[in-house]
Design a protein that fits this description.
Elements: H1 4-19, E1 26-32, E2 48-50, E3 54-56, E4 59-61, E5 66-68, E6 76-78, E7 82-88, E8 97-103, E9 121-128, H2 133-138, E10 142-144, H3 149-152, H4 160-168, H5 175-181
Parallel strand pairs: 8-10
Antiparallel strand pairs: 1-7, 2-7, 3-6, 3-10, 4-5, 8-9
């Protein structure tokens, strides 16, 4: 998708209508699975599975499902499938998390649109961590929807196809939701 913020809003709106909960009281619970995208075989009951995101500034521990320090020379790490589950604000987790910003590109800058939001920032995702919020902020940790051409030369383990997943669809999202926001 070229406008992931619209997709995120559509996911919340679909859940709000389905559950008869006001959309303004909804947020996302971030559940990072230990699955690669090929292993996901069913859509979630609520929310969507997303894949194709890259983590910059640290590493992801696939076994313990949490942030860890970067490996030497690793600039970007491909994330496993993430389940974004709509929940009400009061059901937020109290587990130690890093509110990780998700950007469309590694530029991390955008212009303010007419809605007052950045054209590059998408949302914050809560990622499990044993470190403080400040620890990861000082390291510049962020999630990216795609890598720019300059960065692709450093990521031979990340196929270009994975970069395009955000632009062309989320794994196993509700077909009616996809159809309602995809250009014809």
């Amino acid at each position: 998708f070229f406008f992931p913020q619209g997709f995120i809003t559509a996911v919340l709106q679909t859940h709000a209508r389905k559950s008869m909960i006001p959309i303004d009281s909804l947020t996302f619970r971030t559940v990072v699975t230990s699955l690669p995208s090929e292993a996901v075989t069913h859509k979630p009951e609520n929310g969507v599975h997303i894949h194709g995101l890259f983590l910059q500034g640290c590493n992801w521990d696939w076994e313990q499902c949490r942030l860890t320090e970067s490996e030497p020379g690793a600039l970007f790490i491909q994330m496993p499938v993430i389940h974004l589950e709509p929940i009400t604000d009061e059901r937020q987790s109290t587990v130690e998390v890093y509110k990780c910003p998700l950007y469309k590109t590694s530029l991390r800058a955008g212009t303010l649109s007419t809605t007052g939001h950045s054209t590059n920032f998408v949302l914050y995702l809560d990622l499990a961590s044993q470190q403080t919020q400040d620890h990861w902020i000082r390291r510049g940790v962020a999630l990216l929807c795609q890598l720019d051409d300059l960065n692709l030369q450093y990521t031979d383990s990340c196929p270009v196809k994975a970069v395009l997943h955000w632009n062309y669809g989320f794994a196993l999202a509700e077909e009616s939701l996809i159809a309602s926001i995809m250009p014809k």
